[in-house]
Each structure stands twice: as C-alpha cells, then as structure tokens.
Amino acid sequence: MASLQPVRGTHDLLPEENRVQDHIAETARAIGELYGYHRMTTPIFEFTDVFARTLGDTSDVVTKEMYTFEDRGGEKITLRPENTAGIARAYISNGMQQMSPVKVCYYGPMFRYERPQKGRQRQFHQIGVELLGVEQVAGDIEVIAYGAHILKSLGLWDNITLELNTLGDPESRAAYRNVLVDYFKGHFDKLSEDSRNRLDKNPLRILDSKDEGDRELVANAPLFAEYLNEHSQTFFKQLTDGLGDIGINYQLNPRLVRGLDYYCHTCFEFVTSTLGAQGTVMAGGRYDGLVSTMGGPQTAGVGWAAGVERLAMMVGTGPAAVRPVALIPMGDAAESRCRSLAQQLREAGIAVELGYAGNMKKRMKRADKANAKMAVIIGDDELAKGVAMVRDLDAGEQREVAIDSLIGVIGER
Asked: Which residue of 91, 116, 292, 387 is surrounded by the most CB atoms within 10 Å?
C-alpha cells in the first residue's frame, strides 16, 4: 500500500515555516492594534450563496475554484475562498452597524481549487483588514497606511511598490462600462472565450485578463480616468494628497481594476519584482456596495488582503525559537526532583528541555540539538547539598547554584 501524502495543493507547515507565518500574522495583529483594528474570526465554511452572490457568477473563483459540497442536511456549503464576504455577512448577521465604524483584521486559511505553484496553494493563508462604515477618504488612507506599516515592519518595504487606480463612483463606472462594452464588441471575434462570457455581465474583468490576445486589445482600450466625474476626481485627489501627507509613494496603474459593481473609487496593490511574474503581495480597495448586495444596509467599506505564503517567501526566516534550559538529572532521586523543578521553571515562563531517558552524554547531545542556552546538572551529590551545577553552554563556564535560587539565576540569563 502506497504511503499517504498530503492532498495536491496542500502542505504541512513544519515548526520552522510555522514560525515565519506566525511572525507575519502576529506583526499584522500588533500593528492593527496601533490603528484600532482588532482580530475577528469567521467560520472556515459558509453557505455557498455568501460567495456566489458577492464574487459574481462569472468570476473564476465561483466558476472554477470554489470548494463546494452538500452537507448531510442538504445545505450547499463552500470553504471560504476569501474572507471579505464572510466579514460582511458577519456584519449583517451580528447587527454590527450599531458599532460603526467597524475596524477588524483577520488571519486564517482560505481554499481555492487552482493550479498549485510556488507561493500559491489550494489551501493558503491570508491576513487582511476591513473598515466598514466610513465613507470619507480618510478610511482609504488609513487602511493603506496600515498595510504599508506591516510591510515596513517585516523588512520588505524596499522591494515594494504601491500601484494605485481609481474606479470612480457608480455614475462614473456606469459611463465607463458602456464605453468599454462598445469597444470590446467591436473586437468580439478576437476576445478569448472567458472574456466573451464576461462582456455583458462583468466587462471590467477583461482588463485583468491574462490571455495574450485580450491583453493586446486591453492595451488600446479607453482609460477609466477619461470618464471620471468631478466627485470621483476630487476623491482620488484627496487620496493621493493624503498618501503624500504620510510619505507613501505610489505609481498610477490605469489598468488596475476590480470587476464587480460594488467596488468603487480606490483600487490598489502592493507589488514586488522579487517573486517573479506573480508579484502582488497585498491587494485591496473600496467596496461601498458589498453589504447592500448581501441584503444588509447601505454601508461603505474598504480593505485589503495579503497572502501569507507569499510574504513568507520574501521574509525568509522567522524569529529564532526560544532557547530552553536543559535539565540533566543523574539518578532516580534527581529525576523526580528535576520533574518538579521543570514544572516550576515553566510556570515561571522559562522554557525547559527535560529528556525522557539516557545517560549524561545522550542528554547533553539532546540539549545541544535543542539549542539550549544552559544545562542544569543534578545528581545525588548535588541533591545532598541542595545545589545544581549550572553550565553556560555558550561560554562553557560552570558554577554551583542553590536549587532554591535557580529560577532567579536562570531568569537573569
């Protein structure tokens, strides 16, 4: 019988890799507290309609990538492919409009059936932020600043570029949509099959097509900026002025879009050239129509999400594991005493490596493997005197310490 392997597109996060991801998630959470954002966790699966209604029935996620199944109660359930829809659903079902503005961040696994590749798995992890109930451009500036702060704290900022575009208000979007449909209908026979299917329902998605033929047509398509009304132009100027106030540079990318109608105004991505062709590490925008699309009250929203696996590839290694103290008991009486001592040390916040068996040589070897900073050796002679031999494994120095004083001595080190 063949040995069992993880499902294609999934992988085990071993301790070293887990430390990197935990570092990223904890950095995002801690920085969020500085901006007033607090972590919120939604279920890993939702009713399928939560995503089908919000992501659009022509999107790749809905048509090709969602993990959907019928549970034993006959309900249609989907593993979450992203978390914004879940946060919006929670906003409605928990009556959170009474708490406006709602400022939350999140971290957790997402699921999409797509071709696995470097930094992109079928089960992957995201950090993200959502700000609900703020119509003013100050919300967009704050959310972008929060994302930039994380990237700076992770030491990635020098390899990051903020790309920015505006999708205008609904009036501007409708005007541009009509012009775009007319343009692509004039080149209908050259469009890919996916783009033909999107032309009437979701034409802006064509601007984001990866098909080479589509990209040639997109290069000559009308630009959104030419159809912005005065309100949309003012909003975007306030955004760019605000980013200037806090020293965040950006590049305009007029082809940066979000295909669904509930997106408006701000659209942005933090991108890098260090990950190859798939260079987006954090992406977001304003989605004032999302909550109402889901049956809730009209609610402004803006946020972003970032793939933790991709960030981890850039970060490289996480913080080093805590270096423990190795207790080395010699004899049955010392074994019993060290068991009690290990518990005392751990409850005092000191990591302890206590081997399960073996002579002194084997236990010292295990201490070295655990990268212990010191060894505490206790045998019958030491017990009789109420002391332990404390060996600094970096300096190679050894001294005698009263057992009752160990917690204080080790805590100083």
From this structure: 91
